[in-house]
Amino acid sequence: MALGADRRQVARAVFSRAASHVGYGVLAGGAVIPLLMAAITRILDEPGSLWPPVPVAGAILALYMTAMLAVCMLACVVPLRRALRVQPTEALAADA
């Protein structure tokens, strides 16, 4: 904000970096969860049956992705509030 950014630009800077990092992690986790469910299916059930059913597995995966992104956004609230609270003159004085 000391260099002329408005509140929206500061919020975008804080959230975009965190969202991209968590997005990559969620995608990696989303690729691993179906593999784990397939392994559990082979261990717990007889071959050929699906456990859990495909719609349930899809719901679990969607819930996982939504929860991780929500936690990320909540974790960004405190740094965002702290960044928005700093007065531009204080930030410039701290750099000198």
Characterize the structure shown:
By secondary structure, the protein is mainly α. It is 80% helix and 0% strand. It has helices spanning 7-44, 54-75, 77-85, 88-95.
Outline the secondary-structure elements.
Layout: H1 7-44, H2 54-75, H3 77-85, H4 88-95
Q: Can you summarize this structure?
A:
The chain is mainly alpha-helical and 96 residues long.
Number of helices, where a helix is a run of at least 4 consecutive DSSP H or I residues = 4
**On the 0-100 scale, what is the average pLDDT?**
77
Helix content: over 70%
Largest sheet: none
N- and C-termini, Cα separation: 16 Å
Which labels suit this protein?
rod-shaped, single chain, 4 helices, 0% strand, 96 residues, mainly alpha
